[in-house]
Specification:
The chain is built from 10 helices and 16 strands. By secondary structure, the protein is an alpha/beta fold. The strands form 4 sheets. The protein has an 8-stranded mixed sheet, sandwiched between helices. A 4-stranded antiparallel sheet has the order 10-12-8-13. A two-stranded antiparallel sheet has the order 7-14. The two termini are about 15 Å apart.
Amino acid sequence: MIKNLVKEYASQYFGKIQKIRHHLHMNPELSFNEVNTGKYIKSVLDDLKIEYTDGWCEHGIVAIIKGNQPSDKVIMLRADIDALPITEENNIPYKSKNIGVMHACGHDVHTSCLLGAMHILNEMKSTFGGTIKCIFQPGEEQLPGGASIMIKQGVLENPKPTSILGQHVHPPLAVGKVGYRSGMYMASADEIRITVKGKGGHAALPHNCVDPVLMSARILTALQDVVARNTNPNIPAVLSFGKINSDGGATNIIPDEVKIEGTFRTMNETWRTEAHKQIVRIAEKTAESMGGSCDVDIMVGYPCLINEPVLTQRTHNNMVEYMGKENVVELPIRLTAEDFSYYSQEAPACFYRLGTGNVKKGITSPVHTPTFDIDEKALEIGMGLMAYLTIKELQ
């Protein structure tokens, strides 16, 4: 039985994949700078004698496994390889050695699980046909996203995938469980930078100034109407600002400029475009009404992530076969974003969540925090599940 054989191989390779994960976790590299990470992945592929091409988005790798049975199906598996600018606070033997850089979003887990799945699939080529295209992608954490660059470079061609799978850690979900959602799943994400311009001067003489700090406060308040009063309540959306800076300002100095940075996220591409226009108009008119001006720069980021319903239903059914119905959970939509969304716009795709939490062991920290870690039993489950989903999709 294929399921049992996959689980046997996952158990057999667990120790090796755990060591790979530890190496990656100890040696994280930031987006688009994954030089040594790429070299290490290639060394693993060389040991497996799996063919690959490199240089994708500079440090990315595309590896190919072909089944022994006749088939023209092509499935693409994707793992991201970059880390975050976070200093790790975990007291673990495999703690990051690069101060200020950490695999706090689990990309070391994604990469390890894909390498583990490749070990299994390489052993089981006689059980399936077709082609497996394995993508080790740089730069997921930074716009414009490595996925968009690799697509422009032709990663979805020669051969073109008939389906695409991606796996992501999910600390709120207990290890041993997996989550999915059909249709719209994750939001688009745009970066907003506003420079508010006034006339600085002595804080005790505000009548001689055009105060950009006050203008900024009014702009921030007014912009909340974009979601609170203009977004259809059936369309999830959020507009948040996380950074305000006034170079040259002080307790007794009104600055000439204030810079504001934030994010706009939604799950409707038509409304996304209209909201951008509203953000610009509200910010500019509010500043103008107070005697100042502002520049609004909206960096359009990742699109909405859509899990193709037919593929997702097949994936769900195969998850139930491998994990058991009680361990497969339907997930709510998320206003977080992922550059896997670029792939989902181009071909049938399914992006699912791997449970990595363990409350009893104190493994509860969310991603993007300095104490994030996983119950490493998830490695065995993750590589086995990915291999099983791939084989079932190719049969």
